[in-house]
Design brief:
The protein is an all-alpha fold. It is about 85% helix and about 0% strand. The protein contains 17 helices and no strands. The longest helix has about 40 residues. It is globular.
Length: about 450
């Protein structure tokens, strides 16, 4: 298969053109989280655990946004392939409206009830206090994040993946600078601890949004329209929009909620385990950007081909994308298994116990990487990218809630397994997803044309 992939210049060229900027953007985004964790480790274990648990709210929020906007990207890509620019603009308008609505709900909840959210995971006053201070303040970045999500997905799906990358690149350095200033009180700024990390995030999100707006207005591509036009109502088009995005939003919401439940399961092991899994996930996510890039690229390429009516080519690209995903998963999984201690040198201030828990957690994650990356490309890139949103929703939901969560709860609550074993139990759902989805993907039953 790899010889066929190498000879397919159109596939490799487009995959690289889209995937690399997306990978770099996600690397920067995850780098921001890793940078926060790195700086906060200097404040102590309670701060690491508290901010990590507080970020579960953002994690849940971001995956609802991911659902709205990956659902929208199905339409973006197909309309772009069919040359329907007016419908691209309408899609972006509805993506922004629904994303902002969700962000307001999360903003209000995180501001008024931050202690309640942290207490769901752990009953430790030190952790709850640190997490609540961070969550209440960082929630003001959510609306900016929502708008940036929508504009960035629209640009990537219409052959402009560089702009979102540049915006994230700039925001990374802005965040790093202001984190340093406000967490530790440098350059005459007040020393604010975890609140300082939240302020750095707000400023970075604001700059990212401004860069995207500037690019959108300056280059006037297929996504550009007068700002007021994005908020016009088209009842017939809204029904089409909701038909596509609703299953994706449900899928992402339930899947991300499952990940929040996993965090609660890990937190039952103890405060050190809570801090350890936050560190391990920060490192793992730096490598998992490859899956994000490949799945996003596959979804766009496949969507455009379906919009053009070339279904055979869409099926061919899907099978090649799955091979690429699994191969890179095996390589990156080996890195996590062989070099966990080297990767953890990013966090020199960890206690011995937290470091050991993080090290074994990374090795456990490495074992699952080939399957996880295959599934990321398969579900986000192929099934969802091809418009098969209802099947994708059903598969993800059933596997997370009827396989991963029950096994994780039994493993920790009944058998009291260590953190690394709990990770293997909770990610067993990935194997089920891969086995169940294979026949449908190989037969091409996932191809749905909405253009």
């Amino acid at each position: 298969m790899w010889s066929k992939i190498a000879k397919d210049k159109e596939f490799t060229s487009k995959l690289t053109k889209i995937a690399v900027p997306v990978m770099l953007q996600h690397l920067i985004t995850n780098g921001l989280n890793t940078l926060d964790t790195f700086m906060i480790t200097k404040l102590g274990t309670n701060s690491v655990a508290g901010v990590g648990l507080a970020n579960q709210a953002f994690f849940f929020f971001s995956f609802i946004l991911f659902g709205i906007n990956t659902g929208s990207s199905i339409l973006f890509a197909q309309y772009y392939g069919a040359g329907e620019e007016d419908r691209i603009k309408k899609t972006l308008g509805y993506a922004m409206k629904f994303s902002v609505l969700v962000s307001i709900i999360f903003n209000l909840f995180a501001f008024f009830k931050p202690e309640w959210f942290i207490k769901v995971f752990i009953d430790d006053s030190g952790v709850i206090n640190e997490g609540a201070k961070y969550l209440r303040l960082v929630s003001f970045s959510y609306i900016l994040t929502a708008l940036s999500f929508s504009i960035g997905f629209a640009m990537r799906s219409t052959d402009n993946p560089k702009a979102p990358f540049v915006a994230s690149f700039i925001s990374f350095f802005v965040n790093a600078f202001f984190n340093y200033c406000f967490i530790f009180g440098k350059f005459g700024m007040p020393r604010m601890g975890v609140r300082g990390a939240a302020i750095g995030t707000i400023i970075a999100r604001f700059i990212e949004f401004l860069v995207l707006i500037y690019v959108l207005k300056k280059y006037k591509g297929p996504c550009y329209d007068k700002f007021c036009n994005y908020f016009k109502c088209d009842v017939k088009f809204r029904k089409q929009f909701l038909k596509v995005i609703t299953p994706v939003v449900i899928e992402e919401s339930l899947w991300s909620l499952a990940q929040v439940v996993y965090s609660g399961i890990y937190a039952k092991i103890g405060v050190d385990a809570t801090a350890g899994i936050q560190v391990a996930q920060s490192v793992s996510n730096l490598l998992y950007v490859v899956a994000r890039g490949l799945s996003s690229a596959a979804a766009v390429i496949i969507g455009v081909k379906i919009g053009e009516g070339d279904y055979d080519r869409a099926q061919d690209i899907a099978m090649k994308s799955l091979v690429v995903g699994a191969t890179f998963g095996a390589i990156l999984g080996a890195v996590l298994i062989i070099f966990p201690s080297e990767l953890l040198k990013l966090f020199p201030d960890l206690t011995y116990d937290v470091r050991e828990l993080s090290r074994t957690a990374l090795m456990a994650m490495g074992l699952t990487y080939p399957i996880r990356m295959h599934n990321s490309v398969g579900i986000v890139g192929v099934l969802r990218g091809g418009g098969d949103v209802k099947y994708s929703m059903t598969l993800e939901t059933i596997c997370s809630w009827l396989v991963g969560i029950p096994l994780g709860m039994i493993a920790v609550g009944v058998f009291h397994v260590p953190l690394w074993a709990a990770i293997l139990f909770t990610t067993s759902d990935e194997l089920v997803k891969m086995i169940v989805s294979q026949p449908r993907m190989r037969k091409g039953l996932w191809i749905k044309n909405y253009s």
